[in-house]
Design the sequence.
């Protein structure tokens, strides 16, 4: 059968056509909302990466900022001549390299009845507040002397290639047989914390930290009230060994270097000779002089203070 006219279209379009025309604005709004969420997530990710990737290559550092700050805690009850000698030692070295110095008092910080030796941790955090753009912070106990002023922190310790040559890899963190060892194959520019160890464990008398969010996290973790109240036998030293072994995020940023690079002992109480000071070493540490009742730090350090002054005054040094 043939129709004279084509079949009339229904005046009631299929339901999907109505739904399609009415839902398209909703779909567009949903897509915009999804894109907005993705953009927000991307911005947040970039923010986190910029905060936790170190000092940041694009950071503008104000003119005159010291690249390194030397931190030494002073006991104001020590003889004034001794305090003056320690400050002179650091200030002379800092002036040669354009560094800053910071000398807080041992009683400046609330330690909640913990030993005064803990004060080094908040002192380093304090220094980072006072020098917010400096790259390195070098802590050195007051019972040590800088003996080779020609050595710089950047070239001698923190240079990437230098670190990759000197860092001790797959080394037990706590000698002699800790199952936790330093990581192998870490790039030098990823290291933010450099220190040494002696025969008994990690030494926190001389160490360098690179400024950044990780450094703040590390110092805050080390200074946790739980560790200060735990009554470790060797206070902050044992606390440091604990967090390094139990927190991979800390161990991954740590480098151990040979003791004579950063922390030579005038004499090693354990009888070792590997880390004993020799002329030309960067630092001499009178380790244990403040702990043994038959030793006197000021008396032991006087001959080396005299020697340091000879080195300081040597023409052309």
Sequence:
């Amino acid at each position: 059968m043939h129709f004279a006219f084509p079949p009339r279209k229904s005046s009631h379009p299929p339901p999907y056509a109505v739904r399609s025309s009415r839902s398209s604005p909703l779909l567009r709004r949903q897509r915009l909302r999804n894109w907005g969420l993705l953009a927000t997530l991307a911005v947040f990710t970039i923010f986190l990466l910029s905060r936790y990737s170190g000092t940041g290559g694009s950071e503008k550092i104000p003119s005159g900022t010291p690249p390194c700050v030397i931190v030494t805690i002073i006991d104001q009850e020590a003889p004034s001549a001794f305090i003056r000698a320690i400050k002179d030692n650091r200030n002379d070295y800092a002036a040669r390299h354009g560094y800053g110095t910071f000398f807080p008092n041992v009683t400046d910080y609330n330690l909640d009845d913990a030993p005064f030796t803990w004060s080094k941790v908040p002192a380093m955090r304090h220094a980072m507040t006072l020098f917010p753009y400096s790259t390195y912070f070098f802590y050195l106990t007051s019972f040590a002397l800088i003996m080779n002023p020609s050595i710089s922190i950047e070239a001698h310790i923190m240079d990437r290639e230098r670190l990759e040559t000197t860092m001790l890899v797959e080394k037990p963190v706590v000698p002699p047989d800790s199952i936790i060892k330093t990581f192998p194959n870490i790039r030098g520019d990823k290291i933010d914390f450099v220190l040494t160890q002696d025969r008994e464990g990690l030494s926190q008398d001389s160490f360098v930290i690179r400024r950044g969010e990780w450094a703040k996290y590390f110092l805050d973790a080390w200074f946790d009230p739980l560790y200060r109240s735990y009554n470790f036998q060797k206070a902050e030293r044992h606390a440091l060994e604990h967090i390094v072994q139990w927190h991979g995020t800390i161990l991954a940023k740590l480098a151990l270097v040979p003791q004579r690079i950063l922390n030579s002992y005038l004499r090693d109480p354990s009888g070792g000779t590997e880390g004993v000071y020799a002329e030309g070493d960067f630092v001499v540490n009178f380790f244990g002089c403040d702990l043994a009742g038959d030793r006197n730090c000021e008396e032991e350090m006087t001959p080396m203070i005299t020697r340091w002054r000879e080195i300081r005054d040597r023409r052309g040094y």
The chain has one domain: 68-313. Residues 68-313 form a domain with the Spore Coat Polysaccharide Biosynthesis Protein SpsA; Chain A fold (CATH 3.90.550.10). Strands lie at 68-71, 100-102, 136-140, 144-146, 193-197, 202-210, 254-256, 264-265, 283-285. The two ends are 116 Å apart (CA to CA).
